[in-house]
Amino acid sequence: RERWYEKISLRGYAQFRYNHTLNRDELLSNQGDRSIGRNNEFFLRRGRVIISGQPHERVFFYIQPEFASLVSGTEQVAALRDFYADLFLTENKEWRIRAGLSKVPYGFENIQSSQNRLALDRNDALNSAVPNERDLGIFLYYAPTAVRERFRRLVESGLKGSGDYGMLGIGIYNGQGPNARDLNKNKHVVFHSTYPFELPFVNHQMVEIGMDAYTGQYGVSASPVVPVNPSFFPAGSSSAGQAIPVAPVLRNGGNYLDERVAWHFVLYPQPFGIQAEYTIGRGPELNRDRTEVVTGSLSGGYVQLFYNYQCDTYCLNVFPFVRYQEYFGGRKSEGNVPRNSVRELEIGLEYQFNRALELTVMGTFTSRNSSDSQFDPVACTSFGNSPGVNNIGCLQTPYQRNSGNLIRFQLQWNF
Amino acid sequence: RERWYEKISLRGYAQFRYNHTLNRDELLSNQGDRSIGRNNEFFLRRGRVIISGQPHERVFFYIQPEFASLVSGTEQVAALRDFYADLFLTENKEWRIRAGLSKVPYGFENIQSSQNRLALDRNDALNSAVPNERDLGIFLYYAPTAVRERFRRLVESGLKGSGDYGMLGIGIYNGQGPNARDLNKNKHVVFHSTYPFELPFVNHQMVEIGMDAYTGQYGVSASPVVPVNPSFFPAGSSSAGQAIPVAPVLRNGGNYLDERVAWHFVLYPQPFGIQAEYTIGRGPELNRDRTEVVTGSLSGGYVQLFYNYQCDTYCLNVFPFVRYQEYFGGRKSEGNVPRNSVRELEIGLEYQFNRALELTVMGTFTSRNSSDSQFDPVACTSFGNSPGVNNIGCLQTPYQRNSGNLIRFQLQWNF
Amino acid sequence: RERWYEKISLRGYAQFRYNHTLNRDELLSNQGDRSIGRNNEFFLRRGRVIISGQPHERVFFYIQPEFASLVSGTEQVAALRDFYADLFLTENKEWRIRAGLSKVPYGFENIQSSQNRLALDRNDALNSAVPNERDLGIFLYYAPTAVRERFRRLVESGLKGSGDYGMLGIGIYNGQGPNARDLNKNKHVVFHSTYPFELPFVNHQMVEIGMDAYTGQYGVSASPVVPVNPSFFPAGSSSAGQAIPVAPVLRNGGNYLDERVAWHFVLYPQPFGIQAEYTIGRGPELNRDRTEVVTGSLSGGYVQLFYNYQCDTYCLNVFPFVRYQEYFGGRKSEGNVPRNSVRELEIGLEYQFNRALELTVMGTFTSRNSSDSQFDPVACTSFGNSPGVNNIGCLQTPYQRNSGNLIRFQLQWNF
């Protein structure tokens, strides 16, 4: 019998950050990095260990816990990111079924590993479609052997490819994301296509283009929020004169149509790279009066320019990059589904000391909506307890937009 | 010094399900599979990784986290199932002490691994004695070398044995189950016996019979529930006319006598198999008026018929099975300890593609009590918010019995 | 390419306890062992698995989940203790940076592994400075090669050394401990020094002395507590006549100066050992009236005498030990930061069967403050529900001091 350690292997990586807001403590992010803002702290963004292997020639398994999860107020608890099996339908592995908890093949950056991404967080437009990028479901992938070989080479050569999610893929999944249960009988359906190829007229220059789409019913939640035209607590009440928060009305038991289509284009960095994606669609969003969740349209995307500098000494590769991203639409994973308006410019540098160690520094010029339904600015959070704070004023700006700058440092180690 | 990977090994398995209720969304299960009912969803029932090894000739350790645990509303968090050590008292390993978090040797199906069980969930009667099958304690096991060899062979040959929990065993343990703390000074005591043997008059046909018993004090919890003869909110109250929920009275600080005895019989599938267990006992249960938790008697069991078809091609083994189970008694792990009445008929098929992959399909005809103390049918859960729903009617059927059919699919991969 | 199992290794240990209070159920501990008191139960104190390795000659990583964590009421959930990388600045590894979640080098016992410590829990004085001993931050360590070799030898020879946290160290870290987020912009700074050396006049007798210090701002939390001179609920109220709990006032947004200095001395057990530490400092504490958290001074330490008996047969080593410890000061990790007064005498024996198995028995004579802000004695916890219990009396002794004796047993297995 084969030894277990020949069939199973262990690897992983960590992303350890220091976040520094330059001019505005109210800068909180509801996308990716929950340590942004306020306290300029050290933060373990990702702590991943991956167990994978092939117990049978037709079966491959993959398990990835995230040791830096937040569970009910406790940081650094182990929660699953992936727990799936690939079942190869053909001997050449061109056709396979992936079952379990795995990434939903929607968008390029979503399926690219964070271990390889340049920007510290994923873009809002594509990532808000599949929070945490994963779900429980069954996916069918097809990729010809030649294309599979290209997917592999684009990752292993350090060109920051997405890995192999098929040249074509189709899947059904719950739709509420990982670490959650589905909220309706309707399942989401996703279609995925991407094609990496060598430009015939340039020396080995790789390009990838593709398109993805999904549709489903997403279950949203509501919590009290002060509407645009509020009622007020009557005189004599202990909250006299303050606006009364009301939970927005939800239709159809809270289940809303959620569908998007996306395009991506990648010019791999040999040495100059371009990466761009755009998405449009419609889904739930809080109406302007903040009284009801309705169906609205959304759009957004990003473009990233980057350069692959190969070092002679003291480092392996250096990647300067600049990315502009925007997103206009509801954020379905948040209570009340506030409509977000995000514009962000990021400039950074990834410095690879060796295969095991990277340092990234990134400056961000941001303007985005807060996810705080009640109190804004932050000084008002101790609502009702802080003498001298104008609580009414606070209450009347839920989901306020904040602009400002921040700088972040990330040390990544791979093993 | 020996290499670590020669002393320690890694293995595991996953159970990925799709649950489909055929005719009744109110079918929820308080036994095993929390995804039953309502939303027909994909669900990771088990995601197990096992680390075990022998750092010394007299010491064996075993660690099994469950990556599909529910912790405070978050799914797929890693919580322990096992973390124990076996201390071999004799060189031939016939006598050993097992200390730590491990399975309580009560019943056959409870100690059989879910990796090997045919039915998707354990039966109510035996499993309600030891929710999650495990506890913190110390156990003494004895098995002669010949019997140890039979235990091993009954698992490895695919005959779905229970593994080695001793021919005789005795143990003391907390009694509140894993992932919980004890609630009283009294410890539970369990006695275990089982004997696998070859029938002399049939060719190598294996049979196993045994008996188990335990006693202890179990700490129960109470929460408000509408009694059979309720009071009503007075006119003028915001809940005017509705029944008032009251927490049932608990005696002895909530600690109740909890003791059972059980018998099991297994005719191993060579190729036709029979497996049966029965338990009687007494323990806490909510009285008929729903006003107090008292001590009541309980009984239940199951019988399973199955067949072991060995494939020539395309598969390894196929096991068709049918199981009938019933249980009448309190469910101690639930708040208020409602008295359950469960009758269930299951028909299914386990198809083993290879040692790494199995697909099970199972139909269930069920009638069991809901664990919902307040609202039933499900449509009433949004109590107080849904205009047009008769909330009073809802409130008056806590722990209602639901009948219906469901079909479930399970893909299991082993590594 | 090198095999993964040559670069990465797995090990771990478990501590499984049985706690027995001899004469007082109210003995609860807010330091270390949360199973002390009341129910005399089996408890998994630690369940550790360590993954570590060297993916590059200049990079070492270390991951240690604690499988016995308590997360939101659920026991035995996996939460991180360590997740760090060592970056060696020099080829001889004398200088290194440690980044991520790791131990804060403050005190000897804090950085010594629990796997090696004799007493079942760390002392209050030093450990209350760094609850759970760890934090997110960056540390710079220096140790000459000869000293590094001594650190290694003092652990591997079974002399119960602390491991290598540098001869000199300096670090900045969040300050709120692991599994939490920072609550202010101010980071903690720590300075560490220790020096192990061979006494010239005794045969190979090793001695270690050192000094540590840190400073920072710690964010505390407040919750309602009955003050010394309380107001009372008015007649006619449902709580008529009872004292009204009030949350103490917090200054500076709850952030208080927190700084300490500590000294340690170790005479390694060859065969007779002495280990002693003392700390002084100042930090937040609840004032005497229980109305406000102020800055107060603190002090405490311990001295331990122990003996290293090397067995001929049936065991490896046996360590009898006696420890006296005391602490007077606020406990910053608790709500309201009650001022603690702790005096404890411990007598115990660690019996090492072999390298994989140890049994420790320890008796404790203790006098320490409860962490219960409202109800004391325990009989009052069902405040408002228990007829016949004098709730007012209960309420008026928050953080009461309890004295009593307990005996504990611990089985530890290493792998």
Any idea of the CATH class of chain A?
A: Mainly Beta
How large a portion of the residues of chain A is in β-strands, by DSSP E?
over 45%
Radius of gyration of chain A: 23 Å
Structural class of chain A: mainly beta
From the 3D structure, determine the CATH topology of chain A: Porin
Low-confidence stretches of chain A: 376-395
Q: Average pLDDT across residues of chain A?
A: 92
SS elements, strand count of chain A: 17
What is the string of helix and strand elements of chain A?
HEEEEEHHEHEEEEEEEEEEHE
Biggest β-sheet description of chain A: 16 strands, antiparallel, barrel
Query: Between the first and last Cα atoms of chain A, what is the distance in angstroms?
Result: 28 Å
Described by the principal axes of the CA atoms, the overall outline of chain A is globular
Describe, in plain words, how this protein is organized in 3D.
Three copies of one chain form a homotrimer. With 415 residues, chain A is mainly beta. Chain A has a single domain (7-414), classed as Porin (Beta Barrel). Helix content of chain A is 7%, strand content 50%. Chain A contains five helices and 17 strands. A 16-stranded antiparallel barrel of chain A has the order 1-2-3-4-5-6-7-8-9-10-11-12-14-15-16-17. In chain A, strand 8 and strand 9 (206-219) form a beta hairpin. Chain A is globular and about 75 Å long. The two termini of chain A are 28 Å apart. Chains in contact: A-B, A-C, B-C.
